[in-house]
Amino acid sequence: MITLQETVHKECTEREQLKDALIEARQQLLTMKKNGMSRRKYLVEFVIIIIII
What we know:
This protein is 85% helix and 0% strand. By secondary structure, it is mainly α. The chain has one domain. Helix 1 runs antiparallel to helix 2. The radius of gyration is 16 Å and the shape is elongated.
């Protein structure tokens, strides 16, 4: 049986991993945008990354 402490630790770890993945995705998208990606393509890439995560 999983204790409350273990559950909280697991949830916090998963949240931190998700946060890190979102930060990385945001950086990638900002780089693409900076390199001249159109607004429409930028939004499509953003949605794809969010779906993957």
